[in-house]
């Protein structure tokens, strides 16, 4: 028997044996008095779509397709369209999920849906993912991006899932530095003359002039490397001059990148430019010698703490990182402090539900 | 015998047997009277670096290293630093190259350097690449990006080379359309009800609702697809309403993307969203059936004709495209026209000299 639902505020109530059929057996809605349940619009739309219920208060309830069509065209809140697509997709993959709201859940996470572990329902008390849902064109503030999962629905209604987590930023790379090495500040880089070989070979600062062979004791350093080295007394160069030059060529971004560079070096991680991957840094957690350099593990993009992401840019970064077997990390720098600002690290990886 | 050079305006003149040693045998400079030659600063810097000449008019000419160091720190124009790095890199790879200026060349291309085919020099009259050179932080106007090659020097002095060319935009995909199919315009997508199976299966419009299986005759189309379909009478939907909605959610970008979408379809190429690759479109040149869909060939990013690139974004796009075995194409739309604007297509690929 096909049940009927009726709107009651922003939920759809279904009576009959709805509790047993939809809630207890398949995790839809929350129980009311007796056998009645209340469904969120997205849940009602899904049951409609599957032909399990027929909503009565639509213009044309004479066919199931029309009922669903009318329901879809109604106004159920700004993100209803993309939320329905994600709900239906995860259901079709065998997951149970609930709106992340009371009374569906006792302590709902700050997200669109709570997704339960495969084979579990809401009553098992365990949540696999707090899932945020956005459309491809929705701006996503960095402050809203939190540990959990993110579903992005593209313009053609395909869905990409991401896991958002805290990365491990630590390493045991060599860190001892020389002192007072001769260096020249050029337009947007620094030349280091006759440094000890270890500066490049062991601590991986700079780039030997002309190709990879270390045949002449001349290194070119980036302004970031030079700022860090001069602050630590390794170069005969005024750190303030380097900092000023960095701000001239990059603006505020230089301070944010230097904060991240400094934090990485302090954690025993070696940052080198991520330019070839379109990122700020690629990082090596354990550099003992450049000759035995392993694969870099992370790609890091630096943003101000209040940065607003476009989902498309996230897709591009995470896809590229995945393709080169690295993890994409966003370093969000609270720019109220200068080079010592607070950094929030977020790792994003693709998730295949 | 080590020769000495002397500045004469913006060239360095070298006498002695310079013509034979440097110009005739190794392609440096251009010949003056007798055996004298004139060198561009970048050529002089390279011969200095190699110890082949010693420049006299530096502060401290008592050691070769110092002479080179002083030369490098001098003012030789805004891009001297990055141009020197590229010049030295290509020389170390066995290429001859000249400044793209008279009188080094008779009809110099509009670029920094003319690179000759490996094993050839300037006198052989053939140019392999007209090479533009920019630093990672240099803005690059789309109007300056032309067929040839591009070298980008990153902040750590590593160099990436790109080839810029005209892509082949043509295909033979199925194109016949139905007429007057029922459709609803939702918030930022269109639902197409009961279309003929060929609309998705053969011409690859839309995305079946809920997963890939085509078990229900309901398609979701992007606003671009719907604009194109409604303009061609395939949907019962006012094309102007779709266009308006597109502009509401995307602004001017919608018109540019529609111009590119339309041009691709007209060329027999099927564009689908490139969202997962951070691009506007991925394209298929020969779609006969979605069941036998091959690999998409191009990733297309749409920009206004006066767009200014950051080299880092180019690196990211080209790297990603390369990683997924597609070719990165920029579609530059002259926005003086609307949906029918002129499109300039540029393909960028990595080049390993």
From TrEMBL, chains A, B:
The gene is endA. GO terms for cellular component: cytoplasm. The keyword Lyase applies. InterPro entries: tRNA_endonuc-like_dom_sf, tRNA_intron_Endo_cat-like_sf, tRNA_intron_Endonuc_cat-like, tRNA_intron_Endonuc_N, tRNA_intron_Endonuc_N_sf, tRNA_splic, tRNA_splic_arch_long. The active site is at 284, 295, 326. Endonuclease that removes tRNA introns. Cleaves pre-tRNA at the 5' and 3' splice sites to release the intron. The products are an intron and two tRNA half-molecules bearing 2',3' cyclic phosphate and 5'-OH termini. Recognizes a pseudosymmetric substrate in which 2 bulged loops of 3 bases are separated by a stem of 4 bp. Endonuclease that removes tRNA introns. Cleaves pre-tRNA at the 5'- and 3'-splice sites to release the intron. The products are an intron and two tRNA half-molecules bearing 2',3' cyclic phosphate and 5'-OH termini. Recognizes a pseudosymmetric substrate in which 2 bulged loops of 3 bases are separated by a stem of 4 bp. NCBIfam families: endA, PRK09300.1-1. GO terms for biological process: tRNA splicing, via endonucleolytic cleavage and ligation. Residues 4-59, 182-239 form the tRNA intron endonuclease N-terminal domain. Keywords: Lyase, tRNA processing. Homodimer. GO terms for molecular function: nucleic acid binding; tRNA-intron lyase activity. Residues 254-338 form the tRNA intron endonuclease catalytic domain. Belongs to the tRNA-intron endonuclease family. Archaeal long subfamily. Its EC number is 4.6.1.16. This is tRNA-splicing endonuclease. It catalyses: pretRNA = a 3'-half-tRNA molecule with a 5'-OH end + a 5'-half-tRNA molecule with a 2',3'-cyclic phosphate end + an intron with a 2',3'-cyclic phosphate and a 5'-hydroxyl terminus. PANTHER family: TRNA-SPLICING ENDONUCLEASE SUBUNIT SEN2.
